[in-house]
Description:
This protein has 4 helices and 8 strands, in the order βαββββαβαβαβ. It is α/β, with parallel strands linked by helices. Strands 5-2-1-6-7-8 form a 6-stranded parallel β-sheet, sandwiched between helices. The chain has a two-stranded antiparallel sheet with strand order 3-4. α3 (152-165) packs parallel to α4 (185-196). The longest helix has 14 residues, at 152-165.
Amino acid sequence: MRPETDALIVIDVQNDFCENGALAVPDGDAVVAPINRLMAEFQCIVLSQDWHPAGHSSFASQHPGRAPFELTQMPYGPQVLWPDHCVQGSAGAAFHPDLHTERAQMILRKGFRPSIDSYSAFFENDHSTATGLEGYLRSRGISRVTLVGLALDFCVNFSAVDAARLGFETEVIVSACRAIDLDGSLGAAQTGMSKAGVRMTA
Length: 202
């Protein structure tokens, strides 16, 4: 068992990011079993959940003439346009049925503001609007976080970099993640995490 100062943060292991989902990450289902095993080691477990309202501004369907995975500019910066996914209350937004959600003490929903996306479990994509996760972890006395889940090059990456920037000792277990790898996004994410001081382990 890891110390009480350690937390496991499980990022977005939801049906829409798994096999046959609206935004399926290749081999996404494969993260469930290793994450379930890891949960037995931690006394503090947080699950993040993408939770978009219908018609979210990050959906390509809301931008006439634009296609999924194209890049656009939002008031807060560049934004990938995604297929409609993880719509609040939908089956796609639910956690993978085999994930041991009962072990979590907190479920953090993100991306619920219609006009701004949220990759990180700590901040919206403006990098300043907080989700409240930092405060929760500090109130639990957490100093070290381990991140796993989907997708390595987007929500895991942004969450890990933010955690390190906030002063948490941060580890990403790569074998319990899978990536989209959109136009080299995986390599860029790995470089960015290393520069931020995130430790990536197998």
